[in-house]
Write a structure and sequence with these properties.
mainly beta, 5-stranded antiparallel sheet, 13 strands, globular
């Protein structure tokens, strides 16, 4: 049963019993309690990079470091698109969105700062103090760049919010006859002046003279 976090449930039901998962600030399960009796059925500890240092009941439930799916046989943790190896502190595969993940090392986990950042999907790191948005970027532009994921931020009054992906090969649409009529002489190209008119769905026009 998911409630307070998107990367790990608050409760699990097993064998007809309901268990409460107590996590740390990263979402890593630390204590598993039987809701009916209050009995601690599992306790887990980790080092900074997620290596399991204590597990009193291996395999009791599938969630591990940062709420990923833990394989006790291989020691790998599954986070959406990739597997994480806590022993090396690295992903086992390159970031599938390459450098759009904002790390120059495509195998690096959370910028080598696993105490303050998480990456529950295998794409982007997210600061543990920020809640609600999964994909993060430091992009300050109000319009999405080609090929970039733009997070949905709290904007100033009158600003638009964007949370979308624009493909790198996105091209301006061709003007319809109605748009050309509305623009009038601005849409006429002469030998001396080249006018590029780009009308997007947001209603803005760019003129390059």
């Amino acid at each position: 049963v998911y409630g307070t976090r998107v990367n790990v449930p608050d409760y699990v039901v097993k064998g007809g019993f309901t268990y409460r998962i107590i996590t740390d600030h990263l979402g890593s399960p630390r204590v598993i309690l039987n809701v009916a009796t209050g009995e601690i059925v599992q306790r887990l500890d980790y080092d900074e990079f997620g290596n399991v240092t204590l597990d009193t009941n291996p395999g009791f439930q599938p969630f591990g470091f940062v709420g990923g799916l833990y394989d006790k046989d291989t020691g790998l943790v599954r986070f959406g698109a990739r597997d994480y190896d806590a022993e090396t502190g690295r992903w086992t595969a390159k970031d599938p969105i390459r450098f759009n993940g904002e790390d120059t090392n495509l195998f690096m986990y959370c910028g080598n700062d696993p105490v303050n950042y998480i990456d529950s999907e295998g794409f982007f790191k997210e600061h543990t103090k920020r809640k609600g948005s999964k994909k993060k970027t430091n992009d300050k532009h109000t319009k999405p760049r080609p090929g970039r994921l733009i997070e949905k931020k709290k904007q100033k009054p009158g600003w638009k919010q964007h949370c979308e992906y624009t493909p790198p090969d996105f091209a301006p649409p061709v003007l319809t006859p109605q748009q050309q009529q509305q623009l009038g002489t601005a849409a006429v190209l002469t030998a001396a002046t080249v006018v590029l008119i780009f009308i997007a769905k947001y209603g803005w026009v760019v003129l390059l003279l």
